[in-house]
């Protein structure tokens, strides 16, 4: 499958000064395969390079923002691990270096370095790496009380991804972040709003209407604002914590690579599909 094949699954349009990236796979709860995460990254780069936009808006469709990685379509549960000394150790390491480490570091870094104002219209739950992407946005709006954030890394034998070891502590506080990460516990809408993760929590029933509301409000808020000042303020704020995010991103990726090479997440996914344990989703 080529990137052009993914253009129906992840939509891109520019409306005035807003680049809109919309996940459009509601039948799979907008879970993303490896190639789809790469395509998302390509669109983020496109938005960053557009000299006529100020805001990059991430939105979705259906009832979930994104259920995270669509690993079932990748067949990861059928891939065993390897240990040092095994004949396939180097090949296994190279496989996961490509399929996991490089992709996660690259995608996370794209969001950390994005020069435009990043906004997320969170229409429903966000899970895993997709939740990490939401947490890196500058402004986040929730559609209704069905919104929650879930980082089920411990349930799957993984570690933090997408700099969540930094972003969740910054946005939720150490107590709630520890609970969310260590126990794979969902953070519900009321706590997301109370703790300041969400800038606003609405009461919309329809995702399209919610997305339109966010676009309309953003257009109104940009009136009479100096474009360069907006971007320079964003850059100044981001500079205060950028290094911590970058260190966390690399640390997480290295630890995660060790898990995939050892075959731990693959075994958990196999148990999940067989019904041996229940995912907290």
TrEMBL record:
Which key words tag this protein in UniProt?
Isomerase, Peroxisome
Stated name of the protein: Uncharacterized protein
Q: What is the lineage of its organism?
A: Eukaryota, Fungi, Dikarya, Ascomycota, Saccharomycotina
> What InterPro entries does the database record attribute to this sequence?
ClpP/crotonase-like_dom_sf, ECH/Chromodomain_protein, Enoyl-CoA_hydra/iso
Question: Is Plastid found in the keyword set?
Answer: no
One Gene Ontology MF term: delta(3)-delta(2)-enoyl-CoA isomerase activity
Please report which protein family the annotation says this sequence is part of.
Belongs to the enoyl-CoA hydratase/isomerase family.
Keyword match Isomerase: yes
């Amino acid at each position: 499958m080529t990137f052009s094949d993914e253009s129906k699954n992840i939509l891109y349009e520019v409306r005035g000064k807003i680049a809109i990236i919309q996940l459009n796979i509601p039948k799979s709860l907008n879970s993303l395969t490896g190639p789809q995460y790469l395509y998302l990254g390509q669109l983020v780069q496109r938005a960053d390079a557009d000299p006529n936009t100020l805001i990059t808006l991430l939105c979705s469709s259906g009832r979930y923002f994104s259920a995270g990685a669509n690993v079932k379509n990748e067949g990861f549960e059928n891939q065993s691990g390897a240990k040092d000394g095994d004949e396939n150790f180097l090949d296994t390491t190279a496989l996961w270096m490509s399929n996991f480490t490089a992709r996660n570091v690259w995608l996370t870094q794209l969001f950390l370095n994005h020069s435009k104002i990043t906004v997320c219209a969170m229409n429903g739950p966000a899970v895993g790496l997709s939740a990490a992407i939401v947490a890196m946005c500058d402004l986040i709006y929730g559609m209704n009380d069905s919104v929650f954030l879930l980082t089920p890394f411990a349930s799957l034998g993984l570690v933090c991804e997408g700099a969540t070891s930094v972003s969740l502590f910054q946005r939720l506080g150490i107590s709630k972040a520890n609970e969310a990460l260590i126990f794979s516990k969902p953070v519900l809408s009321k706590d997301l709003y109370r703790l300041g993760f969400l800038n606003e929590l609405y009461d919309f029933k329809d995702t399209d209407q919610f997305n339109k509301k966010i676009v309309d409000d953003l257009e109104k808020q940009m009136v009479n604002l100096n474009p360069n000042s907006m971007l320079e303020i964003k850059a100044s704020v981001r500079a205060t914590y950028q290094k911590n995010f970058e260190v966390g991103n690399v640390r997480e990726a290295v630890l995660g690579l060790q898990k995939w090479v050892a075959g731990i997440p693959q075994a958990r996914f196999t148990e999940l599909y067989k019904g041996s344990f229940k995912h907290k989703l």
